[in-house]
Design brief:
There is one protein chain. With about 400 residues, this protein is α/β, with parallel strands linked by helices. It has a domain of about 190 residues: 3-Layer(aba) Sandwich (Rossmann fold). The chain is about 45% helix and about 10% strand. Strands 3-2-1-4-5-7-6 form a 7-stranded mixed sheet, with helices on both faces. β2, α9 and β3 form a beta-alpha-beta unit. α1 packs across α16, α13 crosses α14 and α13 packs across α15. The longest helix is centred in the C-terminal third of the chain and has 25 residues. The radius of gyration is 24 Å and the shape is globular. The mean pLDDT is about 95.
Length: about 400
């Protein structure tokens, strides 16, 4: 196992594409919105086993060999297809004095890990930090003799970033810039090495397209939030992904992001209570509407969890302009919501086997696109997934 070089990108992409297309009936349907999944008829033993698991079981680390077929086989295949090593350490000098002040610990660890992986053949002259926030990443990368430009949309972050760079006496320019605007291309040229740590959806796609068209020297990207796009469905970048039969909607694109390894116990309890209530309300609305389909509901403030379950459902029904009739058994509905949450979480384990394969497919689409634009590309990890599940790093260097 190692990181992927230019020559290995396509074969891995094709293997992942085959796996995802072949099994899309297992990962496209969402247990949260569908009472009975089509694949349960095909694999009744697996479905029954998962439905009998508890919520505590769903939270525990599952031995992939425990559930009935085809779970162990799929888990092994997914593991094999997504195996990647960390990119080599490029030997970045230690951070300057107090450069990490006011940066949250986890964020600084991510910056540190990302920065240490940027090994390029040619020396960097000018870093460009894309969607930079206060520019912490750019400042960490900046070495003597180099310059830094930080692009950020929020004027308060621009001002705060410039003040920090000035305080450290660094040759950095912080610009207020909407990177989606037509004039953002003028910030990019052949002398720039562009970096983006967890730029969302359209923002990082825009970076790749502009950096390639302007012939930027280097690109280092850790993508995030593949579903944060203006379009209603995925627009493939590379010719190989465009040729695939895989069609991805926004729900599909959200699958790689459904894993949280950083949430605290209180946040997880709130999330569980909120989901159990939504599932209880879902059973109520199906009954009331005499319609066995999911009714999308808006995200609600945490304060709604302070209401009684009955008040929660009545207020949500009013919000959805759904008149309630009869005398619902609130206690039974609430209990059914929690029972359904346990089933949903456990059934999602099948869908979750495809979380990383789909993410790697998406990042390989970006890598192949940059290769088609004449770049040498490497793809690997920049940190352990416990620091961030979004730990894939694409390095592109302009070919000679």
């Amino acid at each position: 196992m190692s990181y992927l070089h230019s020559s290995q990108l396509l074969s891995r992409f094709k293997a992942l594409d085959h796996f995802l297309v072949q099994h899309q009936a297992l990962w496209k349907p969402r247990p949260f919105t569908t009472l009975q999944l089509d694949w349960e008829q095909q694999y009744p033993e697996l479905a029954s086993w998962l439905r009998q698991c508890t919520l505590e079981d769903a939270e525990a680390n599952l031995d992939p060999n425990l559930p009935p077929a085809p779970y162990p086989q799929l888990a092994a295949q997914a593991q094999q297809l997504t195996a990647l090593d960390e990119l080599p350490d490029a030997g970045l000098p230690p951070a300057g004095h107090r450069l990490d002040v006011n940066v949250p610990g986890r964020k600084w660890q991510q910056i540190e890990a990302f920065s240490r992986r940027l090994g390029f053949r040619q020396q960097t002259q000018h870093w460009l930090d894309w969607c930079a926030g206060k520019g912490h990443l750019g400042r960490r990368l900046l070495q003597p003799g180099q310059q830094l430009t930080c692009l950020e949309y929020n004027p308060e972050l621009v001002a705060a970033g410039q003040a920090l760079s000035d305080h450290h006496k660094l040759p950095a320019q912080h610009l207020q810039q909407d990177v989606m605007a037509a004039d953002s291309a003028c910030c990019l040229d052949q002398s720039k090495s562009v970096v983006a740590l967890h730029a969302c959806g359209d923002l990082h796609v825009r970076l790749l397209q502009l950096a390639a068209s302007q012939g930027c020297q280097h690109i280092a990207l850790a993508p995030c939030c593949y579903n944060r796009i203006q379009a209603s469905a995925y627009q493939a970048l590379s010719s190989h992904a465009r040729a695939s039969t895989l069609q991805l909607d926004l729900d599909d694109l959200g699958l790689p992001l459904s894993e949280t390894v950083t949430a605290g116990a209180r946040i997880r309890r709130q999330r569980d209570a909120s989901m159990a209530r939504r599932l209880g309300f879902d059973l109520l609305q199906r009954e009331q509407r005499q319609n066995d389909s999911y009714l999308p509901t808006p995200s609600l403030p945490v304060s709604w969890l302070d209401k009684t379950f009955a008040a929660y459902c009545q207020d949500l029904a009013a919000l959805k302009q759904l008149p309630l009739t009869g005398n619902p058994d609130w206690e039974a509905l609430e209990a059914a919501g929690w029972q359904r949450l346990a089933q949903v979480r456990n059934l999602e384990r099948v869908r979750n086997l495809f979380r990383r394969p789909l993410e790697l497919w998406l990042v390989l689409d970006r890598a192949l696109y940059m290769q088609e634009q004449g770049y040498n590309v490497r793809l690997g990890l920049f940190c352990d997934y416990t620091l961030t599940p979004r730990n894939l790093l694409l390095l592109a260097e302009r070919g000679r």
